[in-house]
Design a protein that fits this description.
This protein is of the alpha/beta class and 812 residues long. It is built from 27 helices and 29 strands.
């Protein structure tokens, strides 16, 4: 390269000399012309040589560049090949190749180390059934193998499976999720009303004792507790603790209720709890919403919001009456102001309008009209029940003065404007309204209802008055009359229709009545309400009576306490007919909850439920997609037969934990099969209680006996707490200590026999020197394949540990 450079410099110098001589010869004429020709010739040669050297230099540069690129490509190719070989053999990426019969043909070393097996010629179904099922269904999935989590990608056309260990990532995600913040608000329901009759010393003592119960519960679960006031407390925890509380079904509710029952205090606990990854102000607002939902559902329960899902716990007692005259007055003033600000007012109830919805609609219309505001009832005579149909026909015949109250949904839609107010009575759910379009058209909405509220209720409103302790919505509206500036004038017919609503919703004053209910009845009677007229509206014809008696004659009693009457499959009945049968069933002695199942449409089954104060039928119906009150509820189920509906109801009843309230409390002094252990305070029928007392198996739960029991229980509690802590520590050790059991397998990976519970406890003893009771292992399925198994073991009634068992192939 350097020689070529020197040669080019020499040629350039000679070319310059020749060019100079040529120029000189042209200027000086005496120079020999042959010398001039020679200089021209030489100049041409030198220029040719110069250009040729430049061309050769460019070729050499290009050649060198191509040689360098070729060396680089060879180096990359080698590295790629090396990387491929390394990934097949050494990289932590499992690769399995199998045939169409799901038999493994080849696997790399890492895949073999995952399964602790040679894998080749093994059938995947014998290696791991879960893996086999997921290969059939998915192209990408996660799977737990021998205590590790692998992300799998399947090339289905080529039958190649790639497995990447993501245990650490999943563990980090789980830890992050477990630490999600949870905020709750504890509310002591009816605290002021329950304690205002006591002197300051007694009041302070009870508040201190209840706070002690709450503080002990929080300490036990390591929850942060801070008081807002005597009535409300803030609790802070993480998602792990939230799930722990859910598993124990929030025992705090029972602890407080037990104390208050013993002290004859009508105080319960409601909790709103929210757990989600969001700003803390939003989380606090969510907790407040859940508490409001719990209170609107009657209190004495917990509403838990976790990542968008809402769950309910408790609600084992009827609602406590806690609406004071001041509260009613404030609600009345709010509604009056809202109505006065509106251009017009419309009242609408639910479809299949019943007597309470109809009476409440008339009562509300009369209230609004007393304010000199236009008000109409949105009404559809095709969407009313049998009783209201009888009433409406009489209105059309004999009381035409009432007809100006009613407008059709179409008329309401045409006349409503942006400032119209829609008042929804006896309902809180959009899909249950007479006409959903009217609700969507309204920009101003008010709601009055006495049913328990759930998370799918209407949440866009300007006014909400929801009191589950009220007997009916009519009761809520009539109570407002006392706080109006102008008296509401009612005709005897109007007052009778409102009375009809109360009578129907309380099943002739059997359910949910309080002194307020009778106050309302007195006011309606003063306005001319006639109970005889009400009873005439409720009469049924002879054929229906006979049919009802026939159905009652075929009633079935489940577990000695649940009465179920089923209507004939081919008949279609109104909901009111089912409700009457349920009302009849609940009057049978020993029946705690009554149900009537019947077809209410060609493709719809209805269940009407009733109870007295012994079972919460609302929670039972909610599990079947319905709802209602503590002792009066219903649900509708589509695409199902009557027999299937009955089986589904019985299944719910079997799992029901409705918190029964019995007549008599006793303390067991011996273990009684099916009732409890020595020292338990139980509620049982008085007849059975007296039998146990006479047999010296129980004593009355008097104050002295309870104090004696408490002293003994305190000592036992300390011992039990010590044992519980030991079992919790053992649980932590077990769950951090997986065991491997090596077994012989056949050619295709099948086990010779199964792994027994005896082998599991023996292996635990061998590997960790921990003795376990094989009878406490709860795993029921046979362990007959290689893989990882989660084996539950009941160390203590409150401690369930999980043994991680890896069944691996024994080396030859």
């Amino acid at each position: 390269m350097k020689r070529l450079y020197n040669f080019r410099k020499s040629m350039i110098a000679l070319a310059v000399i020749c060019a100079g001589f040529l120029l000189y010869s042209l200027l000086i004429k005496q120079v020999n012309k042959y010398l001039t020709y020679a200089s021209i010739f030489l100049l041409g040669i030198f220029l040719t040589l110069i250009f040729n050297s430049i061309f050769q230099n460019n070729i050499m540069k290009r050649t060198n560049w191509l040689e360098n690129r070729l060396k680089l490509w060879n180096s990359i190719s080698y590295k790629v090949k090396l990387a491929g070989e390394k990934s097949f053999s050494d990289m932590p990426l499992g690769i399995i190749v199998f045939n169409d019969k799901k038999k493994i043909e080849w696997a790399n070393d890492y895949a073999k180390s995952i399964f602790l097996s040679d894998l080749v010629e093994r059938e995947i179904v014998n290696m791991n059934k879960d893996l086999y099922n997921k290969i059939l269904l998915y192209d990408t999935f996660d799977i737990d193998l021998y205590g590790k989590i692998f992300s799998c990608t399947l090339l289905r056309d080529d039958n190649i499976l790639f497995m990447l260990d993501k245990t650490d990532l999943k563990s980090l995600e789980r830890k992050y999720d477990d630490r999600t913040l949870g905020i709750g608000i504890i509310n002591l329901d009816n605290l002021d009303q329950a304690l205002n009759v006591l002197d300051s010393q007694e009041k302070t003592l009870h508040i201190s004792n209840i706070m002690g119960i709450i503080a002990a519960w929080c300490d036990y679960h390591q929850i942060y507790l801070r008081g807002y006031s005597e009535e409300q407390y803030l609790i802070i925890m993480d998602k792990t603790q939230v799930n722990e509380l859910a598993n124990e079904k929030f025992k705090l509710l029972d602890d407080v209720r037990e104390y208050c029952t013993k002290e004859n205090l009508r105080i319960t606990v409601s909790i709103g709890l929210a757990c989600e990854y969001c700003p803390i102000l939003n989380l606090t607002a969510l907790a407040e919403e859940q508490l409001m939902l719990a209170l609107n559902r009657g209190g004495n329960q917990v509403v838990v919001y976790i990542d968008g899902n809402i769950s309910y716990y408790g609600g084992k007692t009827n609602s406590i009456e806690n609406r004071s005259p001041i509260y009613v007055r404030v609600k009345t003033e709010d509604l009056v102001d809202l109505a006065k600000e509106s251009s017009s007012v419309y009242v609408m109830a639910h479809t299949a309008t019943d007597a309470d919805a109809f009476g409440a609609s008339i009562a509300m219309t009369k209230l609004i009209r007393s304010l000199d505001k236009e008000c109409y009832i949105v009404f559809d005579e095709k969407k009313i029940d049998q009783t209201v149909n009888i009433v409406y026909n009489e209105i059309c015949r004999e009381h035409l003065n009432l007809m100006d109250m009613f407008v059709s949904p179409r008329e309401a839609l045409n006349s409503m404007d942006e400032n119209s107010l829609l008042i929804i009575v006896d309902c809180q759910y959009e899909q249950m309204l007479i006409d959903e379009r009217v609700y969507r058209r309204a920009r101003r909405v008010a709601i009055l209802d006495h049913h328990r509220r759930s998370n799918n209720a209407i949440n866009e409103y300007l006014f909400l008055y929801n009191q589950t302790s009220a007997s009916s919505t009519v009761e809520l509206v009539i109570e407002m009359y006392d706080f109006l500036e102008k008296e509401v004038e009612l005709t005897p017919m109007e007052a009778s229709l409102m009375l009809l609503g109360v009578i129907v919703d309380t099943s002739n004053l059997m359910y949910r009545t309080s002194y307020r209910t009778y106050n309302v009845l007195g006011k309606l009677q003063m306005k001319g309400a006639e109970i005889a007229k009400v009873q005439r509206f409720l009469r049924e014809n002879f054929d229906k009576y006979v049919e009802r008696m026939t159905i009652l004659g075929n009633m079935e009693i489940i577990d000695g306490k649940y009465g179920i009457a089923v209507c004939p499959e081919e008949d279609i009945h109104q909901r009111q007919f089912l409700a009457k049968i349920a009302d009849n069933v609940i009057t049978v002695n020993t029946i705690k909850a009554a149900f009537c199942i019947g077809r209410i449409a060609d493709n719809e089954i209805g269940i009407s439920a009733r109870s007295l104060d012994e079972a919460n039928v609302q929670t039972i119906m909610e599990k079947l997609g319905g709802g209602g009150h503590f002792n009066n509820a219903a649900c509708q189920i589509t695409d199902i037969t009557l027999e299937e509906a009955k089986e589904r109801l019985i299944e719910v009843l079997k799992n029901n934990d409705s918190g029964e309230n019995e007549n008599m409390k006793v303390i067991l002094i011996n273990d009684v099969k099916g009732k409890g252990k020595s020292g338990d305070i139980i509620d049982i029928p008085s007849g059975h209680a007296n039998y146990l007392i006479k047999a010296k198996q129980a004593v009355l739960a008097t104050a002295d006996n309870i104090k004696l029991l408490e002293a003994e229980n305190e000592r036992e509690k300390e011992e039990a707490e010590k044992n519980l802590q030991e079992m919790r520590k053992l649980k932590d050790v077990i769950e951090k200590s997986p065991i491997n059991i090596s077994v012989r397998v056949g050619k295709e990976g099948k086990l010779f026999g199964t792994v027994s519970t005896k082998q599991i406890v023996e292996e635990y003893k061998n590997q960790y020197n921990i003795s376990l009771d094989k009878r406490k292992i709860l795993h029921e399925k046979e362990i007959d394949a290689l893989g990882t198994y989660k084996i539950p073991i009941q160390l203590h009634k409150d401690v369930l540990a999980t043994i991680t068992l890896n069944v691996v192939e024994k080396e030859n």
